[in-house]
Amino acid sequence: MNNLSLVIETKQQLKCINKPIDDHLLPDEVLIKVHYVALCGSDIKLYKGQYTAPHRYPIILGHEWIGEVVATGTSAESKWCEKDIVTGDCSIYCGSCEQCKKNKNLCERVQKRGITIDGAGSQYVKVSSKYLYKCPKTAVTLPYVLTEPLAVAVEGIKKIGSQKLSEAKEVLILGAGGIGALSAIALIDQGVSNITISDVEEVNIRTIQSMGLTNATPIHADMTKNVSEYVNHFDLIIEASGNENAIVSSLHLLRPGGTLLCLGHQNSIHIDFGMVIKKSLNIIGSIGGTGGFQEAIRIIERNEKCITKLITRMVPIDSVQHFFSKELDLQKNVKIVIEMN
């Protein structure tokens, strides 16, 4: 069985390697023909040797993906059928530790697909049934490759709580990349209005504008530098840029009693914690999408065309090495998707 895999060997070394797959399935395993793999900032940082969280090399990339079932193990066959469209967890949890009982994304033995263990960047992959989610069988499956990042946004927004969401009259999203844009869609789906989306990248703003999000106003601005105009203006801020100044600025931008949801990956930063106390701010951190996949799939069903517009570049598998080595830094994209077959 031909099984080309996208392997990051070491810093800035990605190779398309034929890695034969053992198609013998354990009882709970499913063999999947992968259709698409989407790239996120973590994949780019892994390729450039800039990823600071736990990871390993060599690694088959791919934690945002979609494919179809081609075979099942004996205990999985009752749940999955051939040609089912599926996607899966990035957080590979044990399901038995104390943390898993509360939040599987915080599993004490968690592994990350495509980061600490091999991902779905192969033409065929084997995945344990418990990490899979069924997508609708529609003529257009492409937008469902973004289920995982949308699930990350859904899980984060869930932590805010329905009361805080209903009370949020002015909302700011810092960063109009994949997570930021998908956060806006998730908020709008819950009836939140008056959303401002700020980004310094023109392509991100143009993409948001093209999506027709009537409740959202995209602005080409660095809100970390335009703080004075918006002091105490927002009830809720979602930080999705990963910019180290964004959280610092958010403390000024939030109204007293406001909420900051942190989805962008940050290193160590210095903040004025006195302001957090004086303004009685709520700071929420969230990581992982496990628990949010089913809702994310429902949101995509209702917003297929809109979400597809976030995919601004398609790369065939046989062009991947050239793209990473020659084109990755030459153009700006919201979401890059690799066509695996």
Number of strands: 18
Structural class by helix and strand composition: alpha/beta
* Residues in helices, as a percent range: 25-40%
Distance between the termini: 13 Å
Strand content: 25-35%
Provide structural commentary.
By secondary structure, this protein is α/β, with parallel strands linked by helices. The chain is built from 11 helices and 18 strands. The chain has helices at residues 41-48, 98-102, 147-160, 162-167, 178-189, 202-210, 244-253, 273-278, 293-302, 304-308, 320-327; strands at 4-10, 13-18, 29-39, 59-60, 64-72, 85-88, 91-92, 111-112, 124-128, 132-135, 171-174, 195-199, 216-220, 234-239, 254-262, 282-285, 311-316, 335-339. Strands 3, 5, 6, 9, 10, 17 and 18 form a 7-stranded mixed sheet that branches. The chain has a 6-stranded parallel sheet with strand order 13-12-11-14-15-16, with helices on both faces. Strand 1 (4-10) and strand 2 (13-18) form a beta hairpin. The longest helix is centred in the middle third of the chain and has 14 residues, at 147-160.
Give the secondary structure arrangement, pairings included.
Blueprint: E1 4-10, E2 13-18, E3 29-39, H1 41-48, E4 59-60, E5 64-72, E6 85-88, E7 91-92, H2 98-102, E8 111-112, E9 124-128, E10 132-135, H3 147-160, H4 162-167, E11 171-174, H5 178-189, E12 195-199, H6 202-210, E13 216-220, E14 234-239, H7 244-253, E15 254-262, H8 273-278, E16 282-285, H9 293-302, H10 304-308, E17 311-316, H11 320-327, E18 335-339
Parallel strand pairs: 11-12, 11-14, 12-13, 14-15, 15-16, 17-18
Antiparallel strand pairs: 1-2, 1-4, 3-5, 3-9, 3-18, 5-6, 6-10, 7-8
Helix pairs in contact: 3-5, 3-9
